[in-house]
Design brief:
With about 140 residues, the protein is an all-alpha fold. The protein is about 70% helix and about 0% strand. The protein has helices spanning about 1-15, 25-45, 55-70, 80-90, 100-135, 135-140.
Amino acid sequence: MYIIDNIKKTFLKIFSVKTSKEELNKFAEIKRNRLIKKLRSNAIAIITNQIDLHLGCIKMNTYIYNIRDIKALENIDLKVFEEFYKAFSLYPIIEEKKYYNKEYLAKLEIELDLIDNEYKSRIETKCKEIIEKFEYIKTVC
């Protein structure tokens, strides 16, 4: 067990991404900027209805978590995407809908619409903030 622990510690020292207080290496910075660019593009797709709101939120959470793995985003609170996902995650969306009968699905759609209406303006506001805040990224990558 001692050998495995030492190997694990050594591996983590070699391959760990530096914390937000340390400078990012060039590869991590490029990867992070590409993810931020995707986050921004997804925000545009959500606002312009090019992507379903639920699918857009799922993608947002993926990008946010991947960016945080490298270095957290500063000065922007993106918790609304996680909150929205938690609110709708138990409901069938997109492909899952085909597995439900029409009557039950109609009942679920009413509940899901209430959730969507509660979060939609907050999601759109946050998407606009992302688009404005990370406009510089489109010129960097």
